[in-house]
Amino acid sequence: MRIKKILVVGEAGPQGIRPESLEAVTAARELAEASGAELAGAVIGSDAYEAATTFAATGLSTVYLTDDVRLTTELPITKALATVVETVGAAVVILAGTTTGRDVAARLGARLNAALASDVVGLDSVGGNTVARRSILGGKALVDVTLKGDTARVVSLRPGSWTKAAADKPAGDIVPVQVELTDSDTRVRVEGFEKGGEIGGVKLQGAETIVAGGRGLKESQNFALVEQLAQTLGGAVAASRAVVDAGWRPHHEQIGQTGQSVTPRLYIAIGISGAVQHNVGMQGSQYIVAINRGPDAPIFKLASFGIVGDLFEVVPALTAELSK
Questions:
Q1: Domain assignment present for 188
Q2: What angle do CA 63, 132, 85 make, to 5 degrees?
Q3: Residue 257 has what pLDDT?
Q4: Are the C-beta atoms of 187 and 75 separated by less than 8 Å?
Q5: Residue 34 sits in the same domain as residue 110
Q6: Most CB contacts within 10 A, which of 59, 60, 69, 249?
Q7: Cα distance between residue 102 and residue 124, in whole Å
Q8: CB count, 10 Å around CB of 6?
Q9: Number of helices (H) and strands (E), helices first, in the chain?
Q10: What is the value of pTM for the model shown?
């Protein structure tokens, strides 16, 4: 079945459209160009008009908006998105691989009885079918999956696999779509938000510079070297899984397969050997600088620049020089 319309879903967060959704636009546009399909967007959420306007400014001709105060959890969001998909006749639905995006993609696939591919790092159109390239075995292998069927095919992407689309074009049309929600649809509700303690620093998602530390730092107090360099560069602090498992740093700073995937302009890896599970979370960075005393460390295969040396000498000298 020839792909006629692709629907890319924009996820609205507290600061507007999530950056991962801008990556989804790039992926969807590549598939649209390969298949000759029309590309449209959808934004589902509460108080989401401003986010829809931003999403439309990525070059989408039309953005379908379902805006309802009850659209705060996956159950009603899935129903609303299914309504949009059926209303516009989308053949492919593409979502960012955020926590919510992966959940909604799975629910939408089940609801529509549709072919589903998750953790996708590449998209193509072959013979009218959508071919999704998936990362498997912890990023050690890639497999191409052909999605077939008469209903919409659903895809969720691995964050960091595409560049972010710029929201600097004339905004396309925003078309409201109404959805009927029952008590059953809203049986799980968000009653409110309670602000926790400040975690400090710069958030990893959207950070232009990230400085990450690994077990090469030897003990938790030495992580101060990472914090000082990050502060000097105005960047965010991150960590490898080994560091988080050791209790040196909180889980929200973890980069990798079981942590966050990031795509900063600059990623500095300090004392990180470069296990594949870590690399899949940062390999989309524009520039990677690795500091490690082991010349054969796998991280150097990814690095734009590598420094082989004692991090306890290199990092303080680098911080001091940058401070000037």
A1: no
A2: 30
A3: 78
A4: yes
A5: yes
A6: 60
A7: 20
A8: 27
A9: 9, 16
A10: 0.75
